[in-house]
Specification:
globular, binds pyridoxal-5'-phosphate, 13 helices, Aspartate Aminotransferase, domain 2, 407 residues, alpha/beta, Aspartate Aminotransferase, domain 1, 7-stranded mixed β-sheet
Amino acid sequence: MAKINDNFIKIPATYLFSEIAKRVENYKAANPQADIIRMGIGDVTRPLPKAAVEALKAAADEQLASATFRGYGPEQGYDFLRETIVKSDYEPLGIKLDTDEVFVSDGAKSDTGNIGDILSRDNIIAVTDPVYPVYVDTNVMAGRGGNLAADGKWSNIQYLPCLPENGFEPQLPKGKIDVVYLCYPNNPTGTTLTKAQLKKWVDYALENDVLILFDAAYKAFITESDVPHSIYEIAGAKECAIEFCSFSKTAGFTGTRCGYTVVPKELKATAENGEKIALNRLWNRRQTTKFNGTAYVIQRAAEAVYSPEGKRQVQESIDYYMNNARIIKNGLETAGYKVFGAVNAPYIWLKTPAGLKSWEFFDYLLTEKNIVGTPGVGFGPSGEGFLRLTAFGSTENTIRAVERLKK
Ligand SMILES: *Cc1c(COP(=O)(O)O)cnc(C)c1O
């Protein structure tokens, strides 16, 4: 009989979103007339930029003629997109990259999950708490979790609490770690690190031979000037960090699927025999073996996001979401809530009132206000006592929800 990867049975079933759905369904069944506003949604709602759809259609038409038909493409992505990414996302920040340091993919979830393939099982992993669950679960699947304790923490993973008390700035780990995931602007808290705060992490990583896995999925939402759009804005980061980016939240590609990962050639990690090995080479080997490239038509759509019209259309959607975020933040603050995030990210991290637990406050909002949020504790133990609201809904519903919350 084949043997399974036992790590999979250690992981509890993903309980957060199914439990939310169940509670909403139960409430609706008992209150069929209720007008429920969903603000837990982690998906975009605005359509794709027109420029991207036009490019997608033109690329589809190319598939009708043998002269322009495309079969297998390069596993790492087409040069037209890799070059555009280097020129448009990095050159303006003063960051020089070679195209072969950029790997196009079907999204940042896959890459943040798959990156563990090139890392030893023995690494000690650190995550911020609360956290995007993919980082934790994929490491548990790979055998780096240890055991799940009653406090909701995996015994081999270091949790770095991000709370109002520390300004949501994760403190440098006390014990030895090998790899740390940083996501800024952050999902779920919507908070950021300034350049100076991120520099502390880069300096720490260089001094302690730590690999930083930097998730920049929300960089397009940054409005403040001292918040870095890329970790490579910090000197030395190319020697210690991989950066993950996505068109999902930036350009509405959650269903269209495209992202990219930067693995600088300077970046090395240690082999068992002590030799320092370039991770770019390993990631290239991993991708060429297990991934056959993002669809040509999708890469053309992603390229169009950087055209002048594409940029304008993308900015319109981001402005739309960030206007929602402002409405929520201002409304809640007026109502006396303690609110974090919402300035450089489409997420609002809300302290529950009167010491309520995350799920108690979730139930209160559902039954008294007919608003659905996401309980903060679902993102990690330090999320207890918080709730996440998102700005991805319509402005009309956002305004209605805020009016209810103010009452
Ligand atoms: C949405 C999101 C992503 C993007 O994932 P895709 O697979 O590119 O859609 C990555 N990281 C975080 C933290 C996210 O919230």
